[in-house]
Amino acid sequence: MSVVARAIAAYRARWGAPSGVAYAPGRVNLIGEHTDYNDGFVLPCAIDRGTAVAFGHGDGLSTVVSADFSEADAFDTRAPFVAAPGWRAHVRGVAAVFADRALTLPPMHLAVAGDVPQGAGLSSSASLAVALGGAFSTIGGFGLGETDIALIAQASENRYVGTACGNMDQLAAAHGRAGKALMIDCRSLSVTPVAMPDDVAVLIVHSGITRGLVDSAYNERRAACEAAAAAMGVDALRDATPAMVGAAALDSITRARARHVVSENARVGAFAAAVSAQDWGAIAALMAASHASMRDDFAITLPPIDALVEALAQAAAGRGGARMTGGGFGGCVVALAAQDRLDAVRAAAVAWFAQDGRTSPLIHACRPAAGLRVEHI
């Protein structure tokens, strides 16, 4: 049963027929890690897993049920935000941002279902928050566009959930395009579709190491980037050059963090061109350089993930590449490979886990998927 069908079924079981359902996908970032909150460039694509929110009008308190956890919550959309654990924080947080914007939400009934693995670096939280934003915009009659909904979802993470994330995940979930990656300028918020040839397969492999952004060193990395930009007298590391990083009065760790962001930002544009041209040599080299930079300068990979990336890259045999994707400290590896190398890369992933008696939680081939949609029922 699809996540949309599960959300509708959960709603019907409690309240009858919903008035609509909103769906937003997760995303995999092909290249451009930790550049988003530095006003830089990223190249994600939406994936064919996501979160659905069935919605309808309620009375009194707003109530929400999770089809995945068999849990429920109730809150007042017109009262100040009150913290809650887990998925509840996202529901309450998005509602609170609507209130911050003087967008008054009516009492609602909501049912949520999703199939994006949590802690995998595939943006399960952004998928949920964007789907909630679409549902709230519709039920409130606000008619918000995709970018506004994405920024509301980001603000919920920043203000109420506690993650100092950038806007990439939410923009990708809101603007996803079938068959296309998205070149996102995280300063201007422009989103440019980048066609991915049919022969380019995307393989997502979960390392089996679950991470949590709030509990990781994500916020520390962001603080180091902001300190580096301030030391160089620029608004954000997007405005810095390699020469500036080399000449700035920075300690060795802060310099390395800045060096990753500046070099990664340059790789994004080159990678978009390489994917469009199906230049496998450039794709492999840029993914390898990106992973090395995350490992050596930003220090967010782990030895098992480094080994998995190497195994997948070798299996691609020059017709693809691999790198860690997501915030770091666990989660997924993404590989791009020619269709005729996909089976070999998938087999390499299975073999890598089998060598120590494990099975990956997810080995999933996909093509870029569409973004946020809201359907009336």
Keyword list:
alpha+beta; four-stranded antiparallel sheet; 12 strands; 11 helices; about 375 residues; eight-stranded mixed sheet
Structural notes for this entry:
With 377 residues, the chain is of the alpha+beta class. It is 43% helix and 23% strand. Strands 1, 2, 3, 4, 5, 6, 7 and 12 form an 8-stranded mixed sheet that branches. A 4-stranded antiparallel sheet has the order 9-10-8-11. The longest helix has 26 residues, at 252-277.
Oligomer: single chain
By DSSP, the count of extended strands is 12
The geometry reads as globular
Helix content range of the residues, please?
Answer: 40-55%
Low-confidence stretches: none
What amount of the residues lies in strands? 15-25%
- Rg over alpha carbons: 20 Å
Biggest sheet architecture:
8 strands, mixed
Order of helices and strands: HEEEEHEHHHEEEHHHHHEEHEE
Nearest-integer average pLDDT? 94
State the helix count: 11
Describe how the helices and strands are arranged.
Layout: H1 3-15, E1 20-31, E2 41-57, E3 62-66, E4 71-75, H2 87-100, E5 108-114, H3 124-139, H4 146-161, H5 168-175, E6 180-185, E7 191-195, E8 200-206, H6 218-232, H7 242-247, H8 252-277, H9 280-296, H10 303-316, E9 320-325, E10 332-338, H11 339-354, E11 363-366, E12 373-376
Parallel strand pairs: 3-5
Antiparallel strand pairs: 1-2, 1-12, 2-5, 2-6, 3-4, 6-7, 8-10, 8-11, 9-10
